[in-house]
Amino acid sequence: MPNFMNGVPELLILRTLEAQEMYGYELVQAIRAKTNQAITLGEGVVYPALHALEADGMLKSRRKLVNGRTRVYYALTRKGEKHLAGLVRHWQHITDAVTLAMGGTAYAAATL
Amino acid sequence: MPQPRFDRLTERLLHAGIAPRHVRRYERELRDHFDDLVREEKAGGASNELAETRALSRLGHDDALAEAMLSRSELRSLTARFPWAVFGIAPLVFAIASAVAALYLEIWLLHQPGAVFTWWTGQPPGPVTAKLATKVYTAYNMLALYVLPLAFAWLLYWLGSRQRMPAHWIVTGVVVICVLGGFQEVVFYDKGYVGGGVLSFQSGLLYFLPLPKDTWLYSPHPHFGQEIARAGMNLAIAGGFWWVKARGKVSNAMALSQTPT
Question: Does residue A35 form part of some domain?
Answer without folding.
Answer: yes
